[in-house]
Amino acid sequence: MASQVYLAHKTKIAGENLAIAVRSLADALERAFTNHAQALQEAATASEKYARRLVWATWALVGVTGALVLSTFLQLSRGN
Question: Which of 2, 17, 78, 80 is most buried, most CB within 10 Å of its CB?
Answer without folding.
Answer: 17
